[in-house]
Specification:
about 40% helix
Length: about 180
């Protein structure tokens, strides 16, 4: 599966190309950032922490609509609404971890790189975050790389990132 992030004026768009399931319509992304957009942080966090039940793992599994993205074809969209399913407890836990990691690590990275003033209330210090230092280092390196590429990108330009885990139907936590 490939995820394309297109830089727009003051916002961004996400498109997901996968080899299974219905073709998905692109959508605008929440949480615009000039450095690391929110959905980029989710993707990088989920890859680095192996979170297969959060946003991108669910999309790659292609085994039921849960409302994050919609099929591009109206007929497929209607069918997907009938097949909407609630997340499993593990998927809910993965999503909560993804949200926490995406929000916290980007904020910590912004402080470390001088994009945000330090604040003991939020995000605090890396050492006080309770996060694995190796995970934080990997994420900071990913954010450094992405933000440099994103900053150099003109409006309308695209960066494509790969989801490294298997795609398929029937199981969201495929190995």
């Amino acid at each position: 599966m490939q995820v394309r992030f297109t830089k727009l004026s003051g916002r961004y768009e996400i498109a997901v190309d996968r080899s299974v399931g219905a073709t998905l319509a692109p959508r605008n992304g929440p949480g615009h950032s000039d450095a690391v957009p929110h959905d980029v942080a989710h993707l990088l966090v989920e890859i680095e922490d192996g979170l297969r039940g959060a946003v991108y793992g669910r999309l790659a599994a292609a085994d039921g609509d849960d409302g994050m993205f919609w099929p591009a074809d109206p007929k497929a969209r209607r069918a997907s609404l009938k097949n909407r399913r609630s997340p499993t407890p593990q998927e809910s836990a993965d999503m909560a971890r993804s949200e926490r990691l995406a929000s916290l690590t980007v904020a910590l990275w912004e402080v470390a790189r001088g994009h945000r003033k330090p604040d003991p209330a939020w995000p605090g210090q890396v050492g006080d975050s309770g996060l694995d230092s190796a995970l934080v280092e990997r994420l900071f390196a990913r954010y450094d790389d992405f933000s440099a590429r994103w900053a150099a990108l003109p409006v309308g330009g695209t960066i494509t990132l790969d989801w490294p885990f298997p795609e398929g139907t029937g199981k969201r936590r495929r190995t």
